[in-house]
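Schema walk-through. Below, the input block comes first and the output block second. Nothing else is stored per chain. Lengths vary across the set, and this one has 383 residues.
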Amino acid sequence: MEESSLGTRLRELSLVFLKLGVIGFGGPAAHIALMEMEVVRRRGWLTRDQFLDLVGATNLIPGPNSTELAIHIGRARAGLPGLLTAGAAFILPAFCIVSAVAWAYQQYGRLPETAALLHGIKPVVIAIVAQALIALGRTAVKNAALAAAGIIAFIAAVSGVDEVAILVTIGIVAGLTMWVRSQGPDARATGILVPLWAAVASQTTTVGVASPIALLPMFLVFAKAGSLLFGSGYVLLAFLRADLVERLGWLTNAQLLDAIVVGQVTPGPVFTTATFIGYHLGGMPGAVTATVGIFLPAFVFVALSAPIVPALRRSRVAGAVLDGVNVASLALMASVTVALAKDTLVDVVGIGIAAVSVVLLVRYRVSTSILIVAGGVIGLLLR
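--- output ---
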């Protein structure tokens, strides 16, 4: 069969990923399953092995995994134009939906009905994050050294240490540990892990008063998150809370959690939480600025890393660095979940919703979308 033209491939990519952006509820795991159905089973653009290679590649770079997978598929299908087309098409529906929700939130967010709706949804979100933390932890914590590193990172996070310092320090220490071990059988990780706390604790954060909100600082905040976030979209809470709540004072904990809720109840990438926050802080220009800021690094990282992914995956030291970064990311998730739970689980209803949600997620694997809708209904019924 004759190969389709570049224009045809780009049109096909745009249609497929616009569709996935509209129906993509359920988070990254669901997005990846939908993409596999479309590009492997239905269209045969990739073999299953090729698809799995791209899934693995997304775990080697920071950023939103499912969006980066869409970008990788676009590049494999149509080069650089495909990279841009697939990524933009996957993000665009969520951007439009979240912008509309953000407008409605500003208009009606303080009405009792909306407050009751969010009162029921927020405990579900806490449960979803906790369940994701447990599931990811089973994979990420591969040995005692990584468990120790995760504990240290958690203590550092709740002590106010800068989240970037935690990620960088843990990653470097894990890489050095693997390098030392590779030098001979007598090398031990403890020689490097002992000074870890001192290295991390030397970094500090400052809780400042609210800073003026301008588009360039907003862009930089979200570009930082998109450039440094490993592990899961839920780690976004840690980055945004540190910058927008604690350092700049642009949001409250409650407003940040509202933004995370919107990212959960709408289809597409969880990172469109940034769209909601940007709209809240600066209207439509803010929404565009925050969205571009948080997703732009993903396009850059995929374009730069795709040719060298095979070599990176063969490197034991590079793999160890990523293991350390993933464990540190989970520690950040845990610390921010504890902080947000203190603000959310303040009554019997909230605690009950969260507890039941955890059971339904872990034991019966109920869809997160169903739980969020149910939580909202309960909140309205009990308003």
